[in-house]
Amino acid sequence: MLAKRIIPCLDVNAGRVVKGVNFVELRDAGDPVEIARRYDDQGADEITFLDITASSDDRDIILHIVEACAEQVFIPLTVGGGVRKVDDVRRLLNAGADKVSMNTAAVQNPRLVAEASGKVGSQCIVVAIDAKQTSPGKWEVFTHGGRKNTGIDAIAWASEVERLGAGEILLTSMDRDGTKAGFDLPLTRAVADAVGIPVIASGGVGNLRHLADGVTQGRADAVLAASIFHYGEFTVRQAKEYMRDQGIEVRL
Amino acid sequence: MSSVVVVDYGMGNLRSVAKAIEHVAPDAVVCVSSDAAQIAAADRVVVPGQGAMPDCMRELAARGLREAVIRAAAEKPFLGICVGLQMLFGHAEEGDVMGLEILPGRVPRFPEAAMKAADGSRLKVPHMGWNRVHQAEPHPLWDGIADDSRFYFVHSYYVEPLDPAVIAGSSNYGIPFTSAVARDNIFAVQFHPEKSAQSGLCLLGNFMRWKP
Questions:
Q1: Is the Cβ pair B124, A197 closer than 8 Å?
Q2: For residue B33, what are the β-bridge partners?
Q3: Which of A209, A137, A203, A138 is nearest to A171 (CA)?
Q4: Which of A146, A216, B82, B197 is deepest in the core (most CB within 10 A)?
Q5: Nearest CB to B126 within list A43, A71, A123
Q6: Nearest to residue A198, comparing CAs of A172, A218, A173, A169?
Q7: DSSP state for residue A103 in the 8-state scheme
Q8: For A34-62, how does the pLDDT look when each residue is reduced to its tens digit (9 = 90+)?
Q9: Of the candidates A74, A121, A124, which has its C-beta nearest B20's C-beta?
Q10: Interface predicted TM-score of the whole assembly (ipTM), two decimals
Q11: A87 is catalytic
């Protein structure tokens, strides 16, 4: 059967990997291609680059990183951050990305999801949803790196992007991101049950138990984490061995 | 030295396929091309493919590459990947189009009713991620790859060959399905060897050495 995926995520700022806590404090964690290779060696199932470069002058740096990565790392690569138009999607795919993730632009212009998936295929289009709990059992979509509340219901939005042609959802809990308190499991479960496309759980992983919980309780198809891998707390292989011991099917 | 053309008909991540082949066959001349003459002159041909089957068939025809691909599949080491596998068959449920009809069979979608995991949870479509491939029989392209190794898949449709003798590999996702086919000089896979880490690179290396 299909293995549950473990996806290390690299936040890239002007060509360097960084990781923020609650999207604010940034710490330098190294060269993206070198880190991607290390994760590939450890058995990562995919790599995600999230380009958080603010300055538009530095935007093309990510394309060179994607090109270099595609020459050395032979597992799927997803790239997100700053994707605004179909042409941005094309440029990233041509550089060697396998999937492109869009977030704020999809909320501002949902037609972009339909247009992009119509042009390059659903399998290349990931919609990233940043969600925050607003009341018990209710989550809303935030954009602009978590700063702006759209008031849109996160579960309804997930179903809508599926209808528009997204091939996958990258679901991040803004309440948990950077906290190491574990995924928001009710949120993950609610979205995973609502859609027929794969859901990647993100935000809050602090230990290996959290990764397993995302799959068993959150019913995520894949789990994404950054800091537990970047700072050498655990290798991807250790994470997979742990998950296997919990009865979860993984690629080892 | 061996030359290989990765057929460019405007669909999919060709760069990754070319880079992976360069990685395993550094002496080979690897060329991404939409030129029928170049395809005809190459020692080996790879037809990748991503996205919707109707778009792929339309783009192939629009670039005048239908005949070149059919001829390559008839006479030289030929590797089809993903839609490059699906287009070898006949009727495709996606967009209700016909493929190249080189191999008899059809291309249905994963049936909604069968998309249930053992624990009752829903199996998602597209089938995306790493699944096992059971090797139906020994084949030079499986050399050095353990049976039931995992490869990376992304697809919502699968091939159903009429002739079971062409089945080279099978996988399971709600239902058992054919994930690799082989006949004479043709080998074609539903998964993406260029994205399947060591096992995928091994298969591409085998293809570059293959003398059918």
A1: yes
A2: B7
A3: A203
A4: B82
A5: A123
A6: A169
A7: S
A8: 989 999 999 999 999 999 887 677 778 99
A9: A74
A10: 0.91
A11: no
